[in-house]
Amino acid sequence: LTVLNAGRRYLKAEDLSGKVFVTSGLGGMSGAQAKAAVIAGCVGIIAEVDEAALLKRHRQGWLMEISNNLDHCVARLRDARKNKIALSLGYHGNVVDLWERLVHELDTTGELLVDLGSDQTSCHNPFNGGYYPVQLGFEEAKQLLSTNPGKFRTLVQESLKRHVAAINRLADKGMFFWDYGNAFLLEAQRAGADVEKRGANKTEFRYPSYVQHIMG
């Protein structure tokens, strides 16, 4: 319902075939995003750093494909988008790398490859494994978390700033992003990312919440 209503409200589209939804998280609550993309008929690219979560969703049949190669992901995205094929593709890697690759595609080809975007990392708990920084691989980041949590926190906040910068770049070109109630925008703001709404008070963000703006 969230993906369908985001398409209706922000893309003015009842039919999401050929539209691309990019997000992250295939864990406990976020795992439904892959299935939702296919039910809605769009192309869903979902990033997840934990291979175990990806494999679980793939075994369940909720996730159609898995890849750890961004070149492959972009190629599959282009093909499914062009041919209006419903697809859920799990990218085994950090969502920041995925967002930045989409910015690179925009900068080099002039093509905006994503229509809808969100995030379901566990940003209510970003410094204890809910969000993994793009600067490190998954296992390396887990090791740092246990040995130097202060450094881990710094990397998470740097990663959040990069995360938002890429989203902002694509949103400026017409991609519609929303907050999934996971404290992503709040933690990004605390990290110093550019998420505040222009001309509004500091408690308002430039991107909407799915609760009020989509489900409401």
UniProtKB/TrEMBL annotation:
MF annotations from Gene Ontology: urocanate hydratase activity
Gene3D superfamilies: Urocanase like domains
Residue ranges of domain Urocanase Rossmann-like in the record: 2-214
GO biological process: L-histidine catabolic process
Pfam families noted in UniProt: Urocanase
Superkingdom in the source lineage: Eukaryota
Protein name: HUTU hydratase
Organism of provenance: Steatornis caripensis (Oilbird)
The organism's taxonomic lineage, starting at the top: Eukaryota, Metazoa, Chordata, Craniata, Vertebrata
